[in-house]
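> call design_seq(struct)
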């Protein structure tokens, strides 16, 4: 007899969707970020039934990075970036805003939902974070971010930016958190 999913010990698989806050008026909308987020949502919907069967729910946090210090804190290499329990899925940036998402030997303009599903399932099967490489802020990200040393944490949507006491030192930077099974 197999155990029913609702009686299993449930685990949460954290996924961070990280993007750079574009300065106004350029930030009318970042089509690449919006498309990547829609594909992340499609991947979660596709992987959800399998994850439910093994007792895993997904918690998505949207993180909006406004300064170079925040980017360094998060070790941000590209925007947008999807991190699944620490495993990073991010495009390579060439000149300017061109992005290349690499999957199965191809360079793609957008991340395929199947690539994200594959990464979600791989991390769910073995949720050990990968070791990190040395970090340097990519110059293309620096052009969009203010170099303020006063801000040490990414922007948490809905929290007063001038009052760092509103967010505890151990709080996870998030713009929005949604859980899905």
């Amino acid at each position: 007899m197999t155990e029913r999913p609702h009686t299993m010990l449930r685990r949460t698989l954290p996924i961070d969707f990280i993007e750079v806050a574009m300065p106004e008026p350029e930030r009318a909308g970042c089509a690449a970020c919006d498309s990547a987020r829609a594909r992340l949502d499609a991947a979660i919907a596709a992987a959800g039934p399998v994850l439910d069967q093994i007792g895993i729910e997904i918690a998505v946090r949207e993180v909006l990075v406004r300064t170079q210090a925040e980017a360094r804190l998060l070790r941000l290499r590209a925007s947008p970036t999807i991190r699944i329990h620490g495993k990073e899925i991010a495009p390579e940036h060439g000149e300017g805003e061109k992005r290349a998402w690499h999957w199965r030997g191809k360079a793609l303009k957008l991340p395929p939902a199947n690539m994200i599903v594959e990464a979600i399932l791989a991390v769910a099967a073995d949720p050990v974070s990968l070791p990190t490489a040395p970090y340097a802020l990519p110059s293309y990200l620096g052009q969009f971010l203010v170099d303020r040393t006063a801000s040490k944490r990414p922007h948490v949507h809905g929290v007063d930016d001038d009052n760092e006491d509103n967010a505890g030192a151990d709080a996870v930077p998030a713009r929005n958190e949604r859980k899905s099974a």
